[in-house]
Amino acid sequence: PMMLGFECHRLLLAARGRYDYYGFVEDDVVLTDPLFFRKRKLFDQRFGPEALLQPNRYEVSPTGPVHKLYVDYRLNPRVTVRYQDITDVPHLDMPFMESAVSFERTTYPSAGCFFLSAAQLDRWVESPNFLDGDTSYLSALDSAVTLSVMKTFRVYKPVLRDAWFLEVLHASPRWIGSVTRVATLADLVDER
Question: In the sheet that 51-53 helps form, which strands lie side by side, from edge to edge?
């Protein structure tokens, strides 16, 4: 059962060549944005199959003190440094609706899901990371949903000030309830 995520990789391989996008989604992740795949397509067309845009995963609470929390954006760099080089093309910008959205390589590329374009699926399947069974990243589940794509692509997320651009809801909130203080907006915004 702990290797079930890797079996999902085999299902993606079996479907190769039949779809525009291929997804791996944990059972508690919800896509709420009707423009999710259009935004991904804009990013993919602009930056190519080497760059993978991951959504920001968030939790909500109607009772507060925090009502919305992005739960996996920063992680101690030591955890992922052996799998990715976030200094390789660390920042991207893309025009969007009379403005610009910024993306950055993050130390925590996890999102409880990933979606690959057809070109990205080909790139992933042909890489040595595909079906390598490596479970060295946090846990077997975390490895299945993050590790081999982290080793194959330059993974980006929208910077926190643009976090809304691509996000998914974590429907099993476990972190938002542990927030003990409300940060000010200045604490949360990284101007990079």
Answer: 51-53, 154-158, 99-105, 91-96
Q: By C-alpha distance, which of 87, 80, 85 is closest to 146?
A: 80
Structural domain of residue 149, as residue ranges?
Answer: 4-188
Q: 175, 165, 15: which is closest to 101 by C-alpha?
A: 165
Is the sign of the CA dihedral 51, 167, 26, 2 positive or negative? positive
d(Cα 108, Cα 35) in Å, to the nearest integer?
24
Q: In total, how many domains does the chain have? A: 1
Q: How far is CA 33 from CA 55, 107, 134, 147, in A?
A: 11, 24, 32, 25
Could you say which DSSP state residue 184 is in? P
What secondary structure letter does DSSP report for 141?
A: H
SS3 119: helix
**Among 169, 42, 56, which Cα is nearest to 117's?**
42
pLDDT tens for 92-128 read 999 999 999 999 999 999 999 999 999 999 999 999 9
Contacts of 183 (CB under 8 A, 6+ apart): none
Residue 100, φ and ψ in degrees, nearest 5:
-140, 150
